[in-house]
Design goal:
heterodimer, A: alpha/beta, Rossmann fold, 2 domains, 5-stranded mixed beta sheet, 12 helices, B: alpha/beta, two-stranded antiparallel ribbon, about 40% helix, about 15% strand, globular, pyruvate dehydrogenase (acetyl-transferring) activity (chain B), DH_E1 (chain B)
């Protein structure tokens, strides 16, 4: 497996969204954007979203470990306890099973808690509560109890966090009936999506990514909401449809720059809604390009890509010219060693290779 | 159990003078989430009453075989507990009203209600493989709650014929309900998709044969 360390940062090229392309250098990331408005970081955007919704609606509350006095482990709830008090920004002890159940019980009586898992991997301890009580309660009570919780937290492979703190729980949660999975990726969509998630009557599991908290971008105002079931078209193209989400969006965009130089024209779609899939956008794109590559951070076995690949296979078989290619993480616990960690997840060079393989060679335009 | 803590938390959040009662059996008293909920309830003084229905068996395992300390009302550590005879209606009434006053003033409290289970735990449990029939019969004759109330009423001059009439009425009510349930129509197929989501817009559910089905929200089950 060829390991590459990407050197300097690359400027992002889109004029629709301003975002930073992320690289895996040890020197840290530079943020270079060309927008006129004041840039904020993703954690600030999420914080603004929570702040605005808590102000509008007194039933919104936050529960989690270290969200109050510590300021939030990723600063997403920084300072909120001073404004709203300890009851509304609740510092819980380390008992995920317990406080997730408590949050769901509170939601049953009309509160709208935002339960934070300090790391998505910790929510495995609360899996029973999320599956049985959060997902199924509405159905099993015949519509009598609603659980409008938002379960949010950072997941994904970070910088040498180790195996247990680098888990991608999208693949485990996707089978639970009754929940919606949403993955944010940019500053703008993270704020808008979190606001919609808090307003939604359904239980939403909101996936953030550890490495994306410090990216800079523009965020919308207090009235900007985004649909929780629609995918985002990141780059329009004609050769191949690349479906991705969360941090892999940046990996794909980095690969896209290289591909453009080689003459390819990939279409990049950020799934956003991991359950249910936005089949409208997906089928439109597949019918146009007739080739699909799914780039995800989940494991190869049973990830979001596996589900999506099966769905595309079943519904859009006659619109495909090539089998669906899935680029996912290796089925191994994430190593601590930097190079091995980089080898478990998808790198931009792999995306470039995959596109070249799927689309075929292009004549170099002189 | 944490769900009950959440209900009580919502009352405290809204500053309502209500309590929540969360119930579990002696088998579930060994669950970790109970202690997590106890810790949080005591920490934030949540108005919750933890009720342990101790019927001495966790399905097939007797109390002395699954719990090191079978005084469940003492297992709250820093949370006070009361034990009462669950088969005595009036005792239960008293202890719960006391517990409510306590919970509203001081915080969580545990009640252990001593009771018994005649039949098996569920449809698949015959109820006789782990205990003797003598034990079941002894409990039924000595401690049956309805018999006890009946004896109390008769001893205090209540009319025996009235009691017999009440007995008959209740039996008829139950029989009628059973007949109605047996005669009720089988739910139609499309009810399978009802109420999966509270706000089902755009949340197409994929069917096994590849098509899509839009779930709907209909808590009255009108159609």
């Amino acid at each position: 497996m060829l390991l590459q360390r990407h050197g300097s940062s690359a400027k992002c090229m889109s004029s629709r969204h301003s975002r930073q392309s992320l690289m895996s250098s040890r020197r840290g990331s530079l943020s270079v954007t060309r927008s006129q408005k004041k840039q904020i970081m993703m954690w600030e955007a999420l914080r603004e979203a929570i702040d605005e919704e808590m102000e509008k609606d007194p039933t919104v509350c936050v529960m989690g470990e270290d969200v109050g006095h510590y300021g939030g482990s990723y600063k997403v709830t920084f300072g909120l306890y001073k404004k709203y008090g300890d009851m509304r920004v609740l510092d819980t002890p380390i008992c995920e099973n317990g406080f997730m159940g408590m949050g769901i019980g509170a939601a049953m009586t009309g509160l709208r808690p935002i339960v934070e898992g300090m790391n998505m991997g910790f929510l495995l301890l609360a899996f029973n509560q999320i599956s049985n009580n959060c997902g199924m309660l509405h159905y099993t009570s015949g519509g009598q109890y609603k659980t409008p919780v938002v379960i949010r937290g950072p997941g994904g492979v970070g910088r040498q966090l180790g195996a247990e703190h680098s888990q991608r729980l999208e693949s485990y949660f996707q089978s639970i009936p009754g929940v919606q999975l949403v993955a944010c990726s940019t500053v703008a969509n993270s704020k808008a999506l979190l606001k919609s998630a808090i307003r939604s009557e359904n239980p939403i599991i909101f996936f953030e990514h550890v490495l994306l908290y410090n990216i800079k971008g523009d965020a919308g105002g207090p009235d900007v909401y985004q649909s929780l079931e629609s995918a985002e078209l990141v780059r329009e193209g004609t050769d191949v449809s690349i479906f991705t989400y969360s941090r892999m969006r940046y990996v794909v965009m980095q690969a896209a720059q290289e591909l453009e130089k080689k003459g390819y024209n990939p279409e990049v779609i950020d799934l956003i809604s991991l359950k249910p899939f936005d089949m409208d956008t997906i089928s439109k794109s597949v019918r146009k390009t007739r080739r699909v590559i799914i780039v995800e951070e989940c494991m190869k076995t049973g990830g979001i890509g596996a589900s999506l690949s099966a769905v595309i296979n079943e519904s859009l078989f006659n619109d495909l010219d090539h089998e669906v290619v899935r680029l996912s993480s290796q089925d191994v616990p994430t190593a601590y060693a930097y190079e091995l960690e980089a080898a478990t997840i998808v790198q931009p060079s792999q995306v470039v290779e995959a596109v070249e393989r799927v689309v075929g060679s292009k004549l170099a335009y002189v | 159990i944490p769900l009950g803590a959440g209900l009580a938390f919502a009352h405290k959040y809204r500053k309502e003078p209500n309590v929540a009662i969360t119930m579990y059996g002696d088998g579930a008293a060994n669950q970790g989430q109970k202690y997590e909920a106890l810790n949080m309830a005591a920490l934030w003084n949540i108005p919750i009453i933890f009720v342990c229905e101790n019927n001495h068996y966790g399905m097939g395992t007797a109390e002395w075989r699954h719990a090191k300390n079978s005084s469940f009302y003492t297992r709250g550590d820093f949370v006070p507990g009361l034990k009462a005879d669950g088969m005595d209606v009036l005792a239960v009434k008293q202890v719960v009203s006391y517990a409510k006053k306590y919970a509203l003033e001081h915080g969580p409290i545990i009640l252990e209600l001593d009771t018994y289970r005649y039949h098996g735990h569920s449809m698949s449990d015959p109820g006789s493989t782990y205990r003797s029939r003598d034990e079941i019969n002894a409990m039924r004759t000595e401690r049956d709650p309805i018999e006890r109330v009946k004896k109390l009423l008769l001893a205090n001059g209540f009319d025996a014929a009235e009691l017999k009439k009440m007995d008959k009425e209740v039996k008829k009510e139950v029989d009628d309900a059973v007949e109605k349930a047996k005669a009720a129509p089988i739910p139609p197929d499309h009810w399978l998709w009802k109420n999966v989501y509270a706000a089902p817009a755009n949340t197409q559910l994929r069917k096994v044969d590849g098509g899509y089905n839009t779930p709907d929200y209909d808590p009255e089950y009108k159609n």
